[in-house]
Specification:
Elements (H helix, E strand, L loop, with lengths): L4 E4 L2 E5 L12 E5 L2 E4 L5 H11 L25 E5 L15 E5 L27 H10 L7 H9 L25 E2 L3 E2 L29 E7 L25 E5 L18 E5 L7 E2 L3 E3 L1
Parallel strand pairs: 9-12
Antiparallel strand pairs: 1-4, 2-3, 4-13, 5-6, 7-8, 9-10, 10-11
Pfam family, one: FGE-sulfatase
GO molecular function: formylglycine-generating oxidase activity
InterPro entries: CTDL_fold, Sulfatase_Mod_Factor_Kinase, SUMF_dom, SUMF_sf
Length: about 290
């Protein structure tokens, strides 16, 4: 069953920020046409229905093409994905390789790899280990599409102009508003309302548009190609993969932050935050939601 759509009227809003990371600048006015957005990210159960009906195989389930990864070891060209593994203690936060591990066999069915919890144990969690072409394929099957970065940010802001959709404080009155890292990154996570890793969609409060998990839980794919800053010299061009392979040299803009975002490392659990990700990336903290034209 597809996720319920919430119709948004569109309008103009201030996109971006000059208060945090340089890639969020400059702040500028953007006009968004009316559209509808899924109330929550696509879940494991929903993605399983798509796979069962179509026989689709995700990027993480296919061997990597040696021509696209010159110099890569043969052992790294087998099907798999990146899995977050907490470190044993404090580490240099400039080296992400200390907590991201290439894991053969990791895919949407077994996000942490063989032997870890399967999707069947977490049917209402956001699907992860989905690369950009996988998200685009699901959207086509659903008769929908992936959002542009501007549409996504408009939906996440929900008419607000504050740092977070719920105000200026990350935890107003001590209340946890999104699934983000709790503790010392990347070695101690006490859990967000008890959840270490992804949480069932809708565990945390919705924004003013009634949308859940726009902030935290999983990063979400957009069709906008990532640049190191917002380009005002020309409108951002959607970059889609209608049916071809993922291009590891092309980076899409991710939005929303994830359960791995911590203030000392990745203060990106905000609507204006953005992150680059190559189209072929399949990890334990990236998912997606679809939108539709009105």
């Amino acid at each position: 069953m597809l996720t319920e759509l919430v119709e948004l009227p569109g309008g103009s809003f201030r996109m971006g920020s000059t208060q945090f990371y340089p890639e969020e600048a400059p702040s500028h006015t953007v006009q968004v046409a009316a559209f509808a957005v899924e109330r929550h990210p696509v879940t494991n159960a929903q993605f399983a229905e798509f796979v069962e009906e179509t026989g689709y195989r995700t990027v993480a389930e296919q061997p990597l093409d040696p021509a696209l990864y010159p110099g890569a070891a043969a052992a790294d060209l087998v099907p798999g994905g990146l899995v977050f593994r907490p470190t044993s203690g404090p580490v240099d936060l400039r080296d992400w390789r200390q907590w991201w591990m290439w894991t053969p066999g990791a895919c949407w069915r077994d996000p942490l790899g063989p032997g870890g919890p399967s999707w069947r144990e977490r049917p209402d969690h956001p699907v992860v280990q989905v690369a950009y072409p996988d998200a685009a394929a699901y959207a086509r099957w659903a008769g929908r599409r992936l959002p542009t970065e501007a549409e996504w940010e408009f939906a996440a802001r929900a008419g607000t102009t504050t740092t977070y959709p719920w105000g200026e404080e990350a935890r107003p009155g001590g209340r946890l508003m999104a699934n983000t890292w709790q503790g010392d990154f990347p070695y101690r996570n006490t859990g967000a309302l008890g959840w270490v890793g992804t949480s069932p969609v809708g565990t945390f409060p919705p924004n003013a548009f009634g949308l859940v998990d726009m902030i935290g839980n999983v990063w979400e794919w957009t069709t906008t190609r990532f640049w190191g800053h917002h380009r005002l010299d020309e409108p951002p061009k959607p970059c889609c993969t209608p049916g071809g392979p993922a291009d590891p040299t092309v980076h899409q803009a991710l939005k929303g932050g994830s359960y791995l975002c911590a203030p000392e490392y990745c203060h990106r659990y905000r609507p204006t935050a953005r992150s680059p990700q190559s189209q072929d990336s399949a990890t334990t903290h990236i998912g997606f939601r679809c939108v539709a034209d009105i």
